[in-house]
Fold these 3 entries.
Entry 1:
Amino acid sequence: MRMVDLIIKKRDGKELSNEEIKFWIDGYVNGDIPDYQSSAMAMAIFFKGMNKREIATLTDYMEHSGEVIDLSAISGIKVDKHSTGGVGDKTSLVLGPMVAACGGKLAKMSGRGLGHTGGTLDKLESIPHLSISKTKMEMVEQVNKIGLAIIGQTSSLVPADKKLYALRDVTGTVESIPLIAASVMSKKLASGTDAILLDVTVGEGAFMKNMDSARELARTMVDIGTHLKRDTVAVLSDMSEPLGRAVGNSLEVKEAIASLHGEGPEDLMELCYTSGSIMLVQAKVCKTLEEAREKLHKVIEDGSAFEKFCLMVEAQGGDVEYIRHPEKFEMSKYSIEIRSDVDGYVSELNALEIGESAMRLGAGRETLDDVIDMSAGIVLSKKVGDKVKKGDLLCIVYTNKEDVDSVLVDIKNAYKFSKEEVKALPVIREVIR
């Protein structure tokens, strides 16, 4: 078997057999197939696509290209949640404790943020002394004890994806839906979970800008999970504007804490209630979505979800005093108010512009080596649909940088206004099973 023949075959729009896909992935991981041939294959897939079987097979061989985590020592059905990324997305910090407080088991391996999308690990690491490094045995013990762990991915997990992702990033093949779906699902499947809830974000602040492409990606990933015998459901959520009001690491942790106290923004909480209801049914903790939603509301009201978050932070070495007293988090040197110049209604709040501006303030990284300012970011006072008067506060900007005038202009320009009343899009756009 020769790699060049497989490239030609896919270039001509033909199906690759299971054996041919295995030959490619095994050869690429062990170094027998060079980058330039894998680049050519990725481009052929970009233009010609793959069918359901090919994508599931690719995912399966990528999953098994390295360590596959065995979580069978955790009692009950393990559920996991993955987001395709967005701005202000602190969902896991709220949803995880809620699900665990209801009796679900969530063993989550998460990633860092790059560009305008914040990473769950970075947000957690804004909590002093919290460690996201756990051995498999430590994670198993923690989930068995408190029902919840959110840790970093091990370096031995899915090496095929690490190599292929880096290659796609520099060859113009990132946007291939078969390759995106295989990348996401291979990591989730290798993490050992039994059931997967996918949050596929759609809009300006998301990777998928429109409903058609988001729906295609969601259906592809659900098909992969079904083919590989994992209970998989996808929620399509709106990311045309930031999720919640806080954008930035410790700022988002503080919003997550407020949410666990029942004071969360409506869009964030609706996403958590919808996603959590599905996860509790997947975990067979509840029989119906209605029963699950009622249970989730109860753990917010009685404080048990907040206490579960405290237990997770403590189990991972974090200083729980910061969770119980969020005013202890260090604040940026500068806080700058941005106010409206007009009367009307907010008709648009560009999530991408807000996310990129937060990154430039220090809240994100352009390269993996960049150091994040955990206190930097933006807290939004007005969002789409809100009525504003001239002089009203739109948002507060937090930064330790001195020369941010151009960033402030971009943040203000992210807001668009209308004289007519405007309704915000619902945060839940669609559910795909």
Entry 2:
Amino acid sequence: MAVLNYDAQDEKKGLTVWDKLTSQEKEEVFTFCEGYREFLDRGKTEREVTGEVVKMARDKGFCDLWEKKGLKPGDRIFSVNRNSEIVLAVVGRQPLENGLGLVGAHIDSPRIDLKPEPLYQDGPLSLFKTHYYGGIKKYQWVSIPLSLHGVVARQDGTIAEIRLGDQPGDPVFTITDLLPHLAKDQMEKKMSEGIVGEALNILAGGIPVEGDGVKHRIKQGVLNHLRDKYGIVEEDFISAELEAVPAWPAKDVGFDRSLLGGYGQDDRVCAYTAVRALLDMGDNLERTAVVLLSDKEEVGSTGNTGMQSAFFENFVAEMLAARINSYSDLLLRRTLSSSYALSADVNAALDPNYEEVMDKLNSARVNRGVVITKYTGSRGKSGSNEASAEFVARVRSIFNSAGVYWQTGELGKVDQGGGGTIAYLLAAYNMDVLDCGTAILGMHSPFEVAGKADIFMTYRAYRAFLKNI
């Protein structure tokens, strides 16, 4: 199957992946993306995504690594880290020290977090103080319906799960904005200063409790509701992980439904396609295939659930110990160094409304296939991993042989900005790594848009890589 490699003639013809698909393949695209749309709605936080992936994996015969006493070719295993990170593997016939085939994505997304002491009263309203997470445009998060997701750990160790604002009949939350009639000074500010972080306060309630002796009666009304419905008290907020995310569901976009819009596609589009690629594969593999879904990428991959933690390395060590009934640090180093990885993360699609920030010859387009990115970083390739020519050629060959339509792209003009992925952290193990993912419009916004043909080609790309690397 020919590659869609866009030159001036292709641009003039306006070719897309849709031009190359058969009627049956087009139906496959829509069917696949319906499952992905449902996944987006069920998993709006890293905890929820992890839980969904565990269910998907168990349905396909995967079990927790700790449930196995040994490993043999064909075994399907997973391991979960603090309910916010997960790694899955199908054991191949080759010794692990010959290297793994790895697709690594992240499952955290920009959002609004509640502060440790969030609840307060101001006049006739009760509100939550917040601290935004990741790179957001703050003005995009005001005057939209928000839902509240997360967990509250009580002092006795029990957990209250909260998910409110997504279902029909649920109340929603919101951050108010200033009316235009009084916003003259605000509108003269730079966009980055029009809404400040400390002003992202979420409306939480407005009915006071009865009794003149009660201080902050409206705040107390909210606390009473939380006590009655969830069994939590104000101090429990300190041991909580509560995230405000857009309340709306993922939706088809356009008359022809060729696009899909929703929150958190960076990077859950790559997470879902990678997981599906692994789950849909058979057990007869040469090289052990691994999918890693990490947390905290949007804030630097730090912490014990981020890519900089030892979780992935420890998982590989445990696999070695279970596979050959022995372990050495040298074997672990050989296994990691011999591995091949795709850093599964999205890239920016060329937006017709903002073409001036992109190099059109080196930009990804919507519905023109999965994007391979030789390097990321910013300006002088700072903070990037650059894949070797030989490894890029190998991945191209795999994609071309498997009928995967692909394109290449950079993240904007050289001096404009840029971004990073987990690629450089995987490359620190001395493995070959290439960035590869779906092109996105409106990245980091509350409603990101992806082409359905690109989503399906991302799935095909990861499946081909894990099977043939």
Entry 3:
Amino acid sequence: MEKTVWEKYEEEGLNKISEFAEDYRLFLSASKTEREFTENARKAAEECGFADLNSLSGPLKAGDRVYAVNRNKNICLFVIGRKPLTCGMNILGAHIDSPRMDLKQHPLYEKDGIALFDTHYYGGIKKYQWVARPMALHGIVCLKDGTSVSIVIGEKDDDPVVGVTDLLIHLAAKQMQKKGSEVVEGEALNLTVGSIPAKTEDDKVKEPVKQYILDLLKERYGIEEEDFVSAEIEVVPAGPARDYGLDRSMIMGYGHDDRVCAYTSMRALFDTDAPERTSCCILVDKEEIGSVGATGMHSRWFEMVVTRMLGLNGQADLISLNDTFTNSKMLSSDVSAGYDPNYPEVNDPKNCAYFGKGIVFNKFTGARGKSGSNDANPEFIAEVRKAMELDDVMYQTSELGAVDVGGGGTIAYITAQLNMDVLDAGISVHNMHAPSEIVSKADVYEGYRAYKAFLKNIG
């Protein structure tokens, strides 16, 4: 069997793996929503000398470090290269949204003495995995006066948590006969949030437990029930990411898909100095539901940012924009399905990703007949191989499952529509889309090194 990343490094390299993985674990634990990731990325960028693109008026020079933020949900970072922007960029793109549950616009109700929040799940999930576990509330409530209230409940040691109840096994005979997709229905993903009735002399209060929760929200956050209409509150697993395995070789946490690729891409850009071609890292929202909306990859925002950059250098014309994208190269940084010895039948063992073997390149994703995939050109793949080998980066290639078993997609096909070369590249994951996903620390570090090598050696 081929060597792993663990066997590649001596003590100094192993220490770097541990240090980098710990930085990632802490960042992941503090970035459970796309808003949180964007804000933490912006702060980290400014600490690394990046300036807000919107604050600049003069031409961009080689070595300049700039960023742009879109609606607090996606961020684009650039290190300006020595060559003109029209010669193309080396781009790392990842998404920062993850499967979860969202509160509905009218979420709070009382039933049989229990107060509950009604939810709608986001992204592809096995619904039964999201019950009987502690959950936290993260989000923002926007008030009519223009102010906003940030909410994080369930992360501190003394915070309460919430959750979706499950049916006890003693009474679940009928439930256990259902298909996996029907064991828990979407409309049954209701959060238990309280059971104390409000003490009131007003007989008109028909839902006293609900009223008690409303009183708490009013007292602690200044929120009225009607404010949920303009709220965005996500329900995510409570607690930090943790070392996984007796040897601490892995990390278990919420949101590795795709924040593990987003973080490693961002760090690679931070550690890039004076490149030949402009280096870019774009982190987007909404990939898990089709990359839609103003903050998804289908948005024209990325083109607008690049147009603004060209404009600062006196080139805000369509030909310059087209040349910039046509000459650009991109790694669509998204996670890959790691081979799991508990479920070997879903993979072709010659063409799947293994823990500890480094970054994963997927020539195509999609499903059944490569439908919905980007299918990267072999000439570009050869360039990427050379870039990896120049920096002694371990890599592997994979498909997303055996033929006709399943499949999936990334943002690769969307950016390829701008006429640039794009290849899917990411870190393998176990438990993908579950509340707790798993990655190898060795792959996290080697992924970071791969992204650095791409930014440095392509073009």
